[in-house]
Design goal:
Helix content: 25-40%
Largest sheet: none
Number of helices: 3
Distance between the termini: 40 Å
Order of helices and strands: HHH
InterPro entries: NAD(P)_OxRdtase_dom_sf
């Protein structure tokens, strides 16, 4: 089965799998609709892969934002 996902759908599903509450936003009606189409689950292997992605150490000019700081 081939499944086409938007990056936002993957991110939203990942947060849900972690037990977190994602707060996506968009003004585009098609994007809002797509963000709600989460009729898939991530496998344990996929979750582990995402959890182990190398973290970004330097966000450049945006590094001062609290969400990017350590």
């Amino acid at each position: 089965m081939i499944l086409y996902l938007r990056n936002s759908q993957l991110a939203i599903r990942y947060y849900l799998e972690l037990g977190l509450l994602p707060l996506p936003k968009s003004e585009n009606k098609e994007h809002i609709k797509a963000n709600g189409e989460l009729d898939f689950n991530l496998s344990n292997d996929d979750l582990q892969l995402l959890k182990n992605i190398e973290r970004i150490d330097n966000y450049g000019d945006s590094s001062f934002f609290p969400v990017y700081s350590k």
